[in-house]
Amino acid sequence: MGLSAESNGSEIRAPGTGIGTESNPGLGSRQGGGQGAASKKAKVGNNGFVVQKMVAGGTAGAISRTCVAPLDRMKILFQTQTDPPKYRGVLHALSVITKEEGVLGLWRGNFANCFRIIPKTAVQYGSFAVWRPLADKYLSMGITGSSKSNKTSKGVSALGKVLSAGMLAGLTAQIVTYPLDTVRARLTVDAGGKLNGMFGTLFAIIRHEGFPALYKGIFPTLCGSVPYVGIEFSVYATLKASAYIPKLPNSTELTVLGKLFCGGAAAMVGQTITYPFDLIRRRMQVAGYSQEMRSFFALYKGLWPNYLKSVPAVAITWLVYEEMMEFLT
Question: CA gyration radius for the chain?
């Protein structure tokens, strides 16, 4: 499961990486009872397998984002505040928000966030299950056009296939759910409560700014989130296949701490590389926050609270996703 590819059972493996196809446990397939993930997939069929991944992904996204919602809100407030800054740090932001809006103010916009993240993670994990076998098939072709993996083939490595499938999954998820992300951003910075809920905000944007406004900032979003998802999936797969990550006795399955570590590390690597695009996207989404960046380091404004949010969020997401897939299969 996890990052496993749904191929036809042929092993496509990059030397030294331990990253294989669905028939190989390197990408996170479960092999139990002598059957493995491939036989489990055969029982439910390809469509059923994709649905399982969507259910597991959506559930994981909702649980993880609710856990870190206060940090997520602070990240957006740090990204969009003007000079002089109202919030001078994480603890100061916590104090100001709870004083002005109450404790529940820390979860302002969380319903819209969950309404966005459930379909987003569901589409992301489900579409990865669709894109991965296609990546296995077409990126395995060498210069002769053969899809067979051999020493003379010039096809893409197994890690490259995970990266490519992850990027396509990120692209699919963003296009489908981006309007909900725009609505969530507007609600998050609405400290005065002027906006009328998620659906009211959605229709207000369409009525006053037009439907294209829902996709404002999507280009920098795609520039950041598409490679981020690819990086996250590939780093998670690589770490999961590593012999240094703790696994259950007599099993290739990671322990709970192992899953959390792999997910958190994947998030940190991906966020460090792609964070500037996320910052630009927020400033384009939220009206009134269009001042130009004055230095390179301004592109990383709010990175630390973003780490505090994204690292545990992604770690929890992968843990819940893995456990949900075990339960569903």
Answer: 21
Predicted confidence band at 33 (pLDDT cuts at 50, 70, 90)?
very low
Is residue 314 a contact partner of residue 232, using CB atoms and an 8 Å limit? yes
Residue 232: its pLDDT value, please? 96
How far is 54 from 127, CA to CA, in rounded Å?
8
DSSP string, 28-51: S----TTTHHHHHHHHHHHHHHHH
Q: Provide the sign of the torsion angle of the four alpha carbons 321, 224, 166, 177, taken in this order.
A: positive
| Structural contact between residues 296 and 275, judged by C-beta atoms closer than 8 angstroms | no
Under 8 Å CB-to-CB from 21, ≥6 apart: which residues? 4, 5, 7, 9, 10, 11, 12, 13, 27, 136, 158
- Over range 265-291, report the average pLDDT: 76
- Please check whether residue 260 is in contact with residue 319, taking contact to mean a CB–CB distance below 8 angstroms: yes
Residue 81: exposure state from Cβ atoms within 10 A (0-12, 13-18, ≥19):
middle
Residue 247 sits at φ, ψ, to 5 deg, of -125, 160
Least confident of 40-54, 61-75, 83-97, 194-208: 40-54
Q: Which helix (H) or strand (E) holds 64?
A: helix 36-67
- What is the value of pTM for the model shown? 0.71
Question: pLDDT tens digits for 69-127?
Answer: 888 888 778 777 777 878 887 788 888 888 888 888 888 878 877 887 899 999 999 99
Local structure of residue 286 (DSSP, 8 states): S
Residues in the chain: 329
**C-beta of residue 30 within 8 angstroms of C-beta of residue 1:** yes
Closest CA to 166 of 228, 238, 229, 225: 229
Helix (H, G, I), strand (E, B) or coil at 156: coil
Cα distance between residue 84 and residue 86, in whole Å: 7
What would the two tokens of residue 286 be? 């939220």
